[in-house]
Batch of 2 targets.
Target 1
Amino acid sequence: MPADIKSFCVELFKVNAIKFGEFKTKVGLMTPVYCDLRVIVSYPKLMETLTGLLVEQLTRIKNIDILCGVPYTALPIATCVSMSTSIPMVMRRKEAKDYGTKKLIEGVFKLGDKCLIVEDVVTSGSSILETVNDLKAAGIACENAVVLLNREQGGEGILKKNGIKMHALLTMTELIGYLREADCIDDSVVVKVKAYLKEAQVDASVLLKTPSEDRLKLSFASRAKVAKNPVAEELFRIMTTKQTTLCLAADLTSSTDILNLAEQAGPHICLFKTHIDIIEDFHPNFLKPLQEIAERHNFLLFEDRKFADIGKTVELQYRKGVYKISSWAKVVTAHSITGKGVLDAIKASGEGAGVFLLAETSAAGSLIDEKYTKATLKLAEQYPDLITGIVCQSPLFLQNPGLLQLTPGVQLDAKSDGLGQQYNTPDNVVRDRGADIAVVGRGISKAKEPEITAEKYKSILWDAYSKRLQE
Ligand code: 5IU
């Protein structure tokens, strides 16, 4: 391989893909060496050699389901690697944000697919991280990047800190060594480049800011500190103290049964989710013992009311009627279908409840589409102090670690319930679908021993969260 790569370097030099002199970089600094692999598409033979070298490199990387080239230079390179290895490829759209509803990732993939990144040159690693962020947002796992040239300016370390192992064919030091050997450059150029490399190390702290905010890699304890909604902050703290991310859906119709379930599962949950209007023997007196249990076991009461009317009606539904939800529920759910009014009404009540906004559902045949989901996230952004989190089925948001992802449709033993509910396993929702809190209902309430079952779900979920932090 060294012989191959040496002559390949010389060929790159000959076609001006590597140049020496004085060049301005993207960020305005001067560099004595410039690599521009964009020309390579004009030299099919060189492309073939590069493909062969990359393919050889990637045989050492295990578990690759798909490939993705960093746009644009590495797109044709990734295509060649995909054709040569028969590993399918996906494409990241750079401009999708401007189009609003267009998909960021084109191609066929499954949630949790492991993607190998293909890139030509790495300086800071920021281009790779941009691509990785979008892939992760689509539920694709990224751990490895195969690249032609490591410029040795800090990119490898930055990528590593972000969970990406870089497999480079070549370092800048090796490249200039080979070119010197082949008499393409003289000693003075070698000295200049080496001096430059020493000085021009990338300031990792600036670059790390965005990627390190990826909530999936941050502990709940650290996320508590950046939560803007007080209920989210409290939840992060409860989750950390009790080591639980379990929300129990208490969809029972008798108040005694609900109180019993709360007492049994109490030690293992962070949220107790009710549909207060399904209780057949509801009396306001029922709320007091429920609040007492919640306090004793340190969990929050959560009414899954899914407010969806005009603001004025929501205000009444929230504060009045038999249930007086605002007087006891610390958290409620809301639809985004009617827009701001719902959130304004809840906020104006001044009760300090947190809201989980519904961006996706676990129901088969749901009418919610990508456009609606995105608009919901935008709406949530406008109410940072009110929104506790987002109810969804996939890691829709990564860059806002103060928000919680709540994911219902979780069960170990069933795939569906015959009425459109779709279940995933606890491990899957946390590690592949980005759930911070998992909602489990019948998986626990219908179990023979709800207390033991709640504890089991709690520990599987916590395990999955711990693994996610290390992945
Ligand atoms: N719930 C869902 N899916 C959703 C939303 C809410 O299941 O997309 I939004 C609620 C309905 C029920 C609980 O109260 O979560 C799930 O209960 P089971 O685990 O018993 O299916």
Target 2
Amino acid sequence: MKKFRVVLICTPEMGNLVPLVEFAHLLTNRDRRFCATVLIMTVPERPIVNAYVKSRDALATTTDAHNINFVYLPSVDPPSPDQYKSTLGYLSLFIEKHKPHVKNEITNLIQTESDSEDSDRVAGLFIDMFCTSMTDVANQLGIPCYLYFASPASFLGFMLHFPNIDAQIANEFVESNTDFFVPKDSTTELVIPSFANPLPPSVLPSTVLKRKRDGYVWYLRHAARYMETEGIVVNTFQELEPYAIESISVNGMPPVYPIGPVLDLNGPAQWHPDRVHHESIMKWPDDQPPSSVVFLCFGSMGSFVGPQLREIAIGLQRVGFRFLWSIREPSKSKIYLPGEYTNLKVKEMLPEGFLNRTAGVGLVCGWVPQVTILSHQAIGGFVSHCGWNSVLESLWYGVPIATWPLYAEQQMNAFELVKELRLAVEIRLDYRDGRGSDLVSAEEIEWGLRRLMDGDDEVRKKVKEMREKSRTAVMEEGSSNKSLGS
Ligand code: UDP
């Protein structure tokens, strides 16, 4: 049987890589004529990314894992500091430097194809939101290029309309002395077709509010190139984001395929290098009553320092709910991910005696196998940074979220969940920094936690309904499965 090979490449980050690899599995399982090659950019400073790839690679070679193979691209030198002035600039240039290697790999695949009658045909290249420079490679080699978008359709709509939004920011905003662009008229709101409600500027990604900065230019550049793709596969589903999906499924845009939720339900419990140490964390909820525990976790890049940790601790103590709280240390530089605090350091940063006082009701830990924790019946609510994978995982298990967005598009995700979909309660929609300069007080946390665990029945009910809808979407007759078929 002649096979069709798709080549996939993404930003070396957990939130992008995991759903891309799961998508490759979905595609190759769905139609056995497909096989997939995932190209990996090696980043030694991100051991967790490497551990994940290693484990998936081992699985692929030991279990004929559905026709997927991983190819490690040769490493490149990091961009020199005079070439970039933002994290996104660094990342985008780092990715771009891999272009010759990507071209080389795909050329070899095409060469093998033409040398032998039985070999696979290279059918297309999938890139992610920040790998748009690879469109050039696809164009040069004459293969179709598709975007795999691991964030919501609402944000995809924002990116597709970014040139218009840029014009509005240029005309109606002025630069403040903190580099942020602020509206000339404080009542200005942004009308973005993928949102039913006008957006307050405070929920735009920080980078998008700094119009003269390097990160902004990179956002615009990536967004413009989405239009060059042959189609966009989005990790969302029709029943979750009908409004946003409809707004971008229009003439003049690449066709959009919502195929989610695409989740790795085995999660880090299966591949994390410290999974043995995680066993005690995974067992801890076993002794807690159903829906009694609030779970706090802020993604693969979220971290806090002392003052904010203290406010959270005071908030938790005041409400008295049982809690499982993942705390991470800020990263050392742009390329590193947050690290683990030592036990001693955690003790020093939290209010004196906090760990002893809460020993029976709470657990403070570092990296957690999040999806496994969310699946536990003891978890009653999730304080989340609203990274899209976390949102989809939480909905899959019917756990309501209290929003505390930190970076990237998370403020917009939080806005969508709270204001448009009524699937979450608010702690904050517009938290900016994540490093303590925008302190969320213990009172705000207390208020949000009470609504999350005791208060908002409508949200709880809607989340339970969405749990069912998310599962139906991926079943045989479900909307996402049909979209995958297309
Ligand atoms: N995650 C985890 N344990 C942690 C933090 C994160 O397992 O302590 C997982 C989480 O389940 C999700 C991914 O890492 O699958 C984070 O992706 P998301 O899109 O939510 O946020 P990002 O890390 O990209 O900001």
